[in-house]
Structure formats: C-alpha cells, structure tokens
C-alpha cells in the first residue's frame, strides 16, 4: 500500500516535470493550446507562412507569441496581420525555453493535438517529400528552367503559382536555373565537409 502511494506520487511528479518541459518548449504555453508553431530557421527563411496566417484567422486564436532573441524584422509580416485581425501578440524571452520554436499561435481552449506535431513542416521538407530538390524552396518567386517547371507541375502542382518559367530571352542569355545553382552549391559544400 505504501509502495503504491509512493509510485503514484512519483508519477504525479514526473507528469508535472514533463508538463513544465513542454511549456518551456512552446514558449510558455501548453501543447494542447498551440494551433501552429514555427522554428527559428523557418522564421529566418523569410518565407511568409500562409499556414500561420490561416491559423491566426481561426476563431479560437487568441495570441501570437514570438521569441525576443529572433530579430523583429522577421516577425513584422505576422505582427501586421495580427494587428489587422486585432489578435494580441507578445514578444517573450526566457532562459528556460528549450528547443527551436520561435513563434506560436495560441488557442483559447485546449485542442485535441496531443499526438500531432504542431510545428509546421518546412517548405524544403515539402519539396523533398514530393521527390523534388530542396532548391525549389530557395527559388520561390523566381524564374526557373522548363525542366524544373514541368517537374513541379507533375509532383507538386499547388506550388506552381510561386514560380515563373524561363522565357526565350532567359534561355538566349544563358541564365542559370536557381535550382541547378542551389544543387551545385550544395554538392560543393557536401564535398568539402566529407
């Protein structure tokens, strides 16, 4: 009986510490209250995440929290949307924060997301999962060669609007496709690090 009581106390203690660690990971919020989160790297990529904007528009969204150790210039687009939506936002800093989470959209009520990963998948990961080069993420908004444009149309058509196809002038001037350029640079860097 006494052993069972000690075990229950130990379980409660472990649950408390786990909860505190989780809060430190999500900028002081419980995971159940997180609609979506971005890592520092995703924020510093400077690609505005439409998924975050949509999460901010959800009726349950009550707060946008951002880490103070990330330069404010990366948050400005999100802050502007928050102001337009009259959504509260706050810069937070804490020496106890763990992990790479740099921005969270907080819900008023707990969500059923216990088994879900609330951290948004990076654009590069989306391209890689579709069997495309990570270079597509870095070429967004730019002109790309016909070969890569066709590849994108086949494998990830929802992103076609983020690219333009090389025109005849680009081809005649011998412009290099930014995806090919990225892949070459990545190959050089990989060669040096081995």
Task: Tell me what you see in this structure.
The chain has 2 domains: 106 residues, 60s Ribosomal Protein L30, Chain: A (2-Layer Sandwich), CATH 3.30.1330.30; 67 residues, no CATH class. Helix content is 46%, strand content 15%. The chain is built from 9 helices and 6 strands. It has a 4-stranded mixed beta sheet with strand order 1-4-2-3. A two-stranded parallel ribbon has the order 5-6. Strand 5, helix 7 and strand 6 form a beta-alpha-beta unit. Helix 3 runs parallel beside helix 4. The chain is elongated and about 80 Å long. The termini are far apart. The C terminus is likely disordered. It holds the Pfam family DUF1694. InterPro entries: DUF1694, Ribosomal_eL30-like_sf.
């Amino acid at each position: 009986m006494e052993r069972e009581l000690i075990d229950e106390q130990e379980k409660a203690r472990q649950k408390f510490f786990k909860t505190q660690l989780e809060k430190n990971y999500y900028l002081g919020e419980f995971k159940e209250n997180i609609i979506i989160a971005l890592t520092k790297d995703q924020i510093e990529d400077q690609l505005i995440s439409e998924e975050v904007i949509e999460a901010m528009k959800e009726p349950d969204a009550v707060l946008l929290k951002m880490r103070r150790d990330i330069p404010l210039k990366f948050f400005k687009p999100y802050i502007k949307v928050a102001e337009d939506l009259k959504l509260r936002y706050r810069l937070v800093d804490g020496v106890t924060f763990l992990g790479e989470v740099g921005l969270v959209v907080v819900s008023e009520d707990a969500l059923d997301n216990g088994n879900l990963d609330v951290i948004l998948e990076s654009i590069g990961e989306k391209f890689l999962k579709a069997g495309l080069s990570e270079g597509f993420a870095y070429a967004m908004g730019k002109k790309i060669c016909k070969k890569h444009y066709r590849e994108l149309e086949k494998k990830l058509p929802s992103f076609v609007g983020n690219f333009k196809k090389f025109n005849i002038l680009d081809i005649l001037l011998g412009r290099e496709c930014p995806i090919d350029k990225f892949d070459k640079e990545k190959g050089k860097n990989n060669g040096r690090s081995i």
